[in-house]
Amino acid sequence: MTTAAATRSKTYDLVYIAVFAVVMAVCSWISIPAQVPFTLQTFGVFMAVGVLGGKRGTLAVLVYVLLGAVGVPVFAGFSGGIGSLLGNAGGYIIGFIFSALVMWAIESVFGRKPVVQIISMIIGLIVCYAFGTAWFMFAYTRSTGPVGLMAVLGWCVFPFIIPDLIKIALAYVLSGKVRKYAR
Fold it and tell me: I need a surface site. Which of 23, 99, 126, 133 has the fewest CB within 10 A?
């Protein structure tokens, strides 16, 4: 690849990463308030990795989280700042990074076959749930008092399972169509 082509390729990579960081922000603003708000953030994460692949998709998720961490209002409810990450629901936001990393790892080992993509999204979601739930229990206990695992799962995971599986299905279908244009 020539120097000009390599530079153009890196520029496109940066633009795609930025675009998907913005997509995740817009998805987070579509929100129904709750203990952990119902948003389309996970859809944005799945789309980023589905369209851009593991490396660029994970970088897009990382950029999104870092933007929020420094105070840009990219999280649910137009919030941002380190306080958002340290709050009860912050573990789910950090969990997006781990979800993307897991999806990237699965893609690296097994390729981008359709069934692999769907399974990687499901496993990524489980990783996000696990990290977010553990953080929620820690943060909630520190601020309010002890809480049981089943209570937290009832607040933060069980109500989200069906909507998140629908988001996975939509992200899978749409990412396949969008990927054709993002090369």
Answer: 126
